[in-house]
Design goal:
Helix content: 40-55%
Shape: globular
Number of strands: 14
CATH topology of the largest domain: Aspartate Aminotransferase, domain 2
Number of helices: 15
Number of domains: 2
Distance between the termini: 47 Å
CATH class of the largest domain: Alpha Beta
Radius of gyration: 21 Å
Order of helices and strands: HEEHHHEHEHEHEHEHEEHHHHEEHEEEH
Strand content: 15-25%
CATH superfamily of the largest domain: Type I PLP-dependent aspartate aminotransferase-like (Major domain)
Length: 382
């Protein structure tokens, strides 16, 4: 058999409790989903504001398809860049307080394009050890010299920057860390970039729409403005739609248009997606009640999950990780929760160093939903 070695590797992963499998939903994104004909209360979606199935966005998508059709037809640099894309880029830049923005098809592609487009083999990248996989892959593809600093350890980063030779220096970090839910010390990171003449790339995939006044993201949350900051956010999480963007100085955006492979060599997202995302921005801006409700649910969850044998990590964001002993325990807990009608995914190595249940809250969850989860986990613990 030509693939016997691959099959052996997959069996080994299964034995270790690390084999990944997909599950097919038969329903739209919502706190209540249907999988294989059974209904579940889910705490596994990144739809933090509950916009993925919002009637206004469904209507906007339909109107966008009527106006623009269903495909873009080409890359942005050929004939794929529509007036809908242009309008969205202008709106996104204004929304996050940067001079210009550039759309990418996914957050993974945005990070790859930004890092590859800005640094090369003569340059240096300084990366938080818990950064998202897309940032890790991006810095490898860039061929820059990589220095990784301990998670949120500003002193360690300062030493690495001080010891670096001449060349472009790019510090890259998640704003909200996707598996731990904690927030990077962005003001301190920016101060180091100012001191050592470095650029700061902030991946705000899990903060955009959730943090800051009117959901404008981590930079607004901290009150940060600097031409050194290159800002990336995704549009398929709190925004409820699809895609990603990079916002920065015009010279940075022009450089990416010319040198980011994941922008230059890929088909643009459908214009109807851009049309829909404009409607999403309006909902995000007016969504303070949704964000306030999220904070109430976060506080309630911390109360509900007291006295469990597993550790709930400290987090003020909708990402609430419950650490468990090992991968097998995570799988067992996830299975037992499904028996009680709750869908909560287990996250295991190598994605994270410590296995966990990654609880994610949405503004469309209710207090009763959170109580149901708390009761179920306490019942399993007993």
């Amino acid at each position: 058999m030509p693939y016997a070695a691959l099959q052996t590797e997959l069996r080994q992963r299964e034995t270790q409790g690390l084999l990944r499998r997909r599950h097919t939903l038969d329903s739209p994104q919502s706190p209540h989903i249907v999988v294989a004909g059974k209904s579940y209360l889910t705490f596994s979606s990144n739809d933090y504001l509950g916009l993925a199935n919002h009637p206004q966005l469904i209507a906007a998508w339909q109107a966008g398809a009527e106006q623009w059709g269903v495909g873009s037809g080409a890359a942005h640099l050929v004939t794929g860049h529509s007036a809908a894309h242009e309008e969205l880029e202008i709106a996104l830049a204004q929304f996050v307080g940067k001079p210009a923005a550039l759309l990418f098809s996914t957050g993974y592609m945005a990070n790859a394009g930004a890092v590859q487009g800005l640094v090369g083999k003569a340059d240096y990248v300084f990366a938080d050890k818990l950064n998202h996989a897309s940032l890790n892959e991006a810095m490898r593809l860039s061929r820059a010299t990589v220095k990784r600093y301990r998670h949120n350890d500003v002193s360690h980063l300062a030493k690495l920057l001080a010891d670096a030779p001449q060349g472009r220096k790019l510090v890259i970090t998640d704003a909200v860390f996707s598996m731990d839910g904690d927030i990077a010390p962005l003001p301190d990171l920016l101060a180091l970039c100012e001191r050592y003449d470095a650029w700061l790339l902030v991946d705000d995939a899990h903060g955009f729409g959730v943090l800051g006044a009117q959901g404008r993201g981590a930079l607004v949350h901290f009150g940060l403005t600097s031409p050194r900051i290159i800002y990336m956010a995704t549009l398929g999480k709190a925004a409820g739609v699809f895609g990603a963007f990079v916002a920065a100085e015009q010279v940075v955006i022009d450089t990416l248009i010319n040198h980011a492979p994941s922008y230059v060599y890929t088909t643009a997202t459908p214009p109807s997606v851009a049309h829909t995302t404009l409607a999403s921005l309006r909902l995000i801006e007016a969504g303070d009640d949704r964000r306030a409700h999220l904070q109430t649910l976060i506080a309630q969850l911390h109360e509900e999950l007291q006295d469990l044998p597993w550790t709930l990590m400290p987090s003020d964001t909708p990402i609430q990780p419950l650490l468990v002993e090992d991968a097998h325990t995570a799988l067992t807990l996830s299975a037992k929760l499904r028996e009680q009608g709750i869908w909560l995914s287990s996250i295991r190595p190598p994605t994270v160093p410590t296995a966990r249940l990654r609880i994610t809250l949405s503004a469309t969850h209710t207090a009763a939903d959170v109580s149901h989860l708390g009761k179920a986990l306490h019942d399993i613990a007993r």
